[in-house]
């Protein structure tokens, strides 16, 4: 919980100054594969919205659109260049033919469930689109699963802090002591 608090504290000035545009950029880049604290940014923005400092509708739309577009950009990167990069450099990170075949099988059998579920798991969220593209998952099922996953993830991480903002604010205040 302390790490989330630190992440929110780091992002808060950007959210206050640039508003939902900063949130969109953070979520887009995280969904594209950048190691950014997207979830913390969403929680922080939702808490600011609960205090009336950001519009919750804008927060929701920025997060949802950033997540969908980021994953789709990652998908395009994975589809049109990711396999070449992994074949060339994958051995340096332990990505061998056996792992590739296992992941391909996973996406062949359960691709839509993987895409939806990965949205809720750090690191998988960042790599989801790229890996789906590399594994040649068909784009339409990917897009549908991506939209469903982003909608669920956005709903959870914008609604809960917004609705329970007073509780979160009190809890984070205690962490500051």
UniProtKB/TrEMBL annotation:
Domain VTT, residue spans: 47-159
Location(s), subcellular: Cell membrane
UniProt topology in membrane: Multi-pass membrane protein
InterPro entries (UniProt xref): DedA_domain (IPR051311), VTT_dom (IPR032816)
Parts of the chain that traverse the membrane: 20-38, 58-78, 142-164
Keywords: Cell membrane, Membrane, Transmembrane, Transmembrane helix
Keyword Transmembrane attributed: yes
Keyword Cell membrane annotated: yes
Pfam families for this protein: VTT_dom
Recorded GO CC terms: plasma membrane
Domain of life: Bacteria
Name of the protein in question: Membrane protein DedA with SNARE-associated domain
Organism, scientific name: Martelella radicis
